[in-house]
Amino acid sequence: MLEAKNNDELPPIPPKRYFTIGEVGELCAVKPHVLRYWEAEFPQLKPVKRRGNRRYYQRQDVILIRQIKSLLYEQGYTIGGARQKMTDSPDEVAASRVSSGEIKILIRELEEVIKSL
Q: What is the dihedral sign for C-alpha 24, 89, 74, 5?
């Protein structure tokens, strides 16, 4: 079984509009074939597909993938249980998993805005 990792150990999400499946795999510590499988299992996960059926994920997709990973690997949910949890209370799941890296990015961005004022 895969080793459970805390989302706090994951790298911060860079300020980009689109991410490739390889980049998302690195940001979420999940292999690309797992991401493709999760697309089939979780209806909320719908990356943009462009030329050659290539997937391009947006920031909210990366956050959603980290939430799914947390439910499956850290909290011990099954695929069906995680899917149910995501459909029953998506806001609760989102609020429960904010990584310290994301908070640090927000703090840095706010400090830059304050300096510019």
A: positive
